[in-house]
Amino acid sequence: MKPTASVRQLLEDYIKENGLSLHQFSDISGVNVGTLSGLINSRKRMSILQLDRICMAMGLAEGSLYELYIEEFLMESSPDWRRLRPLLQRCVELNRLDCIQHIIMTVMDNLAYAPHLFVLAEQWYIAGENEAAALLYQCVAESEKYQHSERLALCRYRLFTIQLGDDREADLSLAASFEPYVGRLGEGVQLDALKDLADTYAANQRWTKVEELAEELGRKAVIQYRPGPCDQQRRELCPESEQRGTRRPVLFYILYAYLLRANVCEARGDYEQALNMVSLYTEVGRVQSCSEKEHVILDQFKEWGRANACLYRLMAGQAEVLPEYAEYVASHDSEKVSALLKITEAANRHRFQVDHILERFGPDLKSEGREHAFGSYHAGIAADQHTRLLAELAAYYLSTERVELGMNYIIACLEGCAAFYSEAVVIRCVGLFEKYRTWATPEMKKQYTNLISEVQRNHEEKRGFAADCV
What is the gyration radius of the CA atoms in the chain, in angstroms? Predict the structure, then answer.
């Protein structure tokens, strides 16, 4: 129930109704007697800490008087930031996003608050309070939308990373909306932004965009990476990532650009060129005086390079590399779904027999977050690979006349597409099911029909939601 009286009136009524003196209520609440008297008589402004103590003493839930307090607080023509910040901080601690929204909608017309709100948003973002931080970033972005500022660009970047989800069209819309702001970011942050954009487009198989962004990422990273005689001393004084404003040393982005370009070549079926790109991101001869972090980077890219070299040869039809690639999968649980996808894809394309590989690694094929030495893979990439793997497994077992097993994988794949829609994967599943429909049981046909309807319904709902957000 939303209170209608003032906080002061509620406090005064509570004290009277319970037959308490100010001294007694002071003992219960921990608020000084003189302060209580001043608050009741409107001589003093109530702080958020005092409000919380008074709420507790009155037996009310934390934050239950915040709406009323905010209404009174915002009656001031220009609330002092020293009082506004603790109020916002307390709202985020209690997850009162509605109160945060109310506050910022009231003050956003005053541009003087924008720098303060931005700094607070960054603090919340670092602390993992992304939903609350997004409200502040949106407020700052709206208030500065006509400014050609780095702060506006950084707000748009943060909103892009926060709002990425499991809806392909929504993610692509977010990427397209954010991309024009990349050039306004600081040079270090630009590298992270280009990488995140490329990952988003890669998760959605927009390979032409991935190639463009990879080339831009590599070009900018090379410009920023200038090792020289003083480089070792510079690194000892301050980590390279701190100097540039990047999440990682600049060397990472140079090598990652080559890796992205290798992925583009693989997607286009140019495995020879993909192997050439592998040699570029595993080459270490030109890198000298490496920091400890850079050694980790080089080792990780060498490992990826060995695995990807096997992968590209396998995709080109060289079945003899399968045992070596299988051993890599055995020692890297986080790569299992990705590797099995490629193994099964190669088997379907070149008619390999890989039952022994699937029996060894296939019992537990879950779509989970994938970790590596530098963090996590893009969530969309992991979800996409999982659904594509299920479709490839369906095709593999159906082609070898294990119809029940293949149909079960089609059903599992469509269940995944209900959450993470992929038009190409849905089309693949429909084509497979229709090809083998005569072998499907009535129960399988019923499941299939229901899932197709669910996938379509969820997809249309998400498209409608994405359109509303644009």
Answer: 29
For the stretch 427-437, pLDDT in tens is 999 999 999 99
pLDDT in tens, 193-212: 999 999 999 988 899 999 99
Q: Which residues pair with 375 in a beta bridge?
A: 372
Place of tokens 């995709």: 315
Encoded amino acid at 70, one letter: I
Type of residue at 23: H
Six-digit token string for 98: 């509605």
* Contact status, residue 300 vs residue 372, Cβ threshold 8 Å: yes
- The CA distance from 136 to 129, in Å, is 11
Q: What is the per-residue burial (b if ≥16 Cβ within 10 Å, else e) of 72-101? A: ebbeeeebebeebeebbbbbbeeebeebbe
Rounded CA separation 424/327 (Å): 30
The residue count of the chain comes to 470
Residue among 370, 367, 346, 369 at smallest CA distance from 358: 346
Instruction: Report whether 238 contacts 298 (CB < 8 A).
Output: no
Q: What is the pTM of this model?
A: 0.81
Q: Are 289 and 231 in contact (CB under 8 A)?
A: yes
- Judge contact between 98 and 104, C-beta under 8 A: no
Residue 372 φ then ψ, to 5°: -145, -175
d(CA 256, CA 182): 18
